[in-house]
From TrEMBL:
Keyword tags: DNA-binding, Hydrolase, Nuclease
Protein name as it appears in the record: 5'-3' exonuclease domain-containing protein
Record-linked SUPFAM superfamilies: 5' to 3' exonuclease, C-terminal subdomain, PIN domain-like
Pfam families associated with the record: 5_3_exonuc, 5_3_exonuc_N
GO BP annotations listed: DNA replication, Okazaki fragment processing
GO MF terms, alphabetically ordered: 5'-3' exonuclease activity; 5'-flap endonuclease activity; DNA binding
Boundaries of every 5'-3' exonuclease domain copy: 1-276
Family annotation (InterPro entries): 5-3_exonucl_a-hlix_arch_N, 5-3_exonuclease, 5-3_exonuclease_C_sf, DNA_polI_H3TH, FEN, HhH2, PIN-like_dom_sf
Origin superkingdom: Bacteria
Length: 301
């Protein structure tokens, strides 16, 4: 079985930026703390996961389809620090020096690229099968988990403490499967992305509703068809039922915003050759950035 690793690059560099001290290159004077963290994580991923294929997904600067349908999407996020912006731009050089191909698409987020690539690769596996490992610091991608064939390798703390989520691990964390995470966010919302959900319903109630009724479509069918309201009322307080009915449109719109797309306009094919580290190119970049400890680590990689 072959292994395809998909990198949620923006999420990784954001994590590195906030987890590590700020420092600069003595040669160029540019900020490099997040680039060092990203490089460290990539070396760790390659060493531990031993990918046959690896691809990096990036966000683009243009508004996405989510911004176009909801102007307030991510509106409450503070503007990124200038040092972070510089390193986000420079991170393309780091990824390319590793020999990792980059994918993005106008109007779509990196998550949607990950979802699309995972879907296309899952449907067209190589002989012997394919395991897909998504590497991210963003828990939103857990909705892409599929049994143990598509798993998420994510960071718990800092850039070294990692955990792999398969379907059982997701159910252990949430109480329901990966496919219901967008429904969950449709009810409770997601403040980090300014997704409103159903006003007045928090994480605990949303969890109980999803565990009991599953997808939003089933929950609202129960509420609205025949004597369903009475049936639901035996389990759910009248106040919650009224909130659900009053904010049905918000619930479904929030679910739509929280759902990772799997139809971004890309056509992914597995590379004809297996991944190998571009050691000489990477060594030159590490020396330019002043990452002397990583230069030494390359020889042991």
């Amino acid at each position: 079985m072959k292994t395809l690793v998909l990198l949620d690059t923006h999420a990784l560099i954001h994590r590195a930026y906030h987890a590590l001290p700020k420092f600069t290159s003595k040669k160029t004077g540019e900020p490099t703390g997040a680039l060092y963290g990203l490089s460290t994580m990539l070396l760790k991923v390659i060493r531990e996961l031993k990918p046959d294929y690896i691809v990096a997904a990036f966000d683009r600067p243009e508004p996405t389809f989510r911004h176009e349908s909801y102007e307030a999407y991510k509106a409450k996020r503070p503007e990124a620090d200038e040092d972070l912006v510089k390193q986000l731009i420079r991170s393309h050089d780091v990824v390319e020096a590793f020999g990792i191909p980059i994918l993005d698409a106008a109007g779509f987020e990196a998550d949607d690229i990950l979802g699309t690539v995972a879907e296309q690769a899952r449907k067209n596996p190589p002989a012997g099968g394919l395991k897909i490992i998504i590497v991210s610091g963003d828990m939103d991608v857990l909705q892409l988990v599929n049994d143990d064939k598509i798993v998420v390798y994510t960071l718990r703390r800092g850039i070294e403490d990692t955990v792999i989520y398969d379907e059982n691990k997701v159910e252990e964390r949430y109480g329901f499967g990966p496919n219901l995470i967008p429904d969950f966010k449709g009810l409770k919302g997601d403040p980090s992305d300014n997704i409103i959900g159903v006003k007045g319903i928090g994480e605990k109630t949303a969890t109980e509703l999803i565990k009991k009724f599953g997808a939003l479509e089933n929950l609202y069918k129960k509420l609205e068809v025949g004597g369903g309201r009475l049936e639901v009322g035996k389990i759910v307080k009248e106040r919650v039922i009224n909130l659900l009915l009053d904010h049905k449109k918000d619930a479904f719109f929030s679910k739509e915003l929280a759902t990772i797309r799997r139809d971004a306009p890309i056509n992914f094919l597995l590379p004809t050759s297996h991944f190998s580290l571009h050691t000489s190119q990477l060594k030159a970049l590490f020396e330019e950035l002043g990452f002397t400890s990583l230069v030494a680590r390359l020889s042991a990689q």
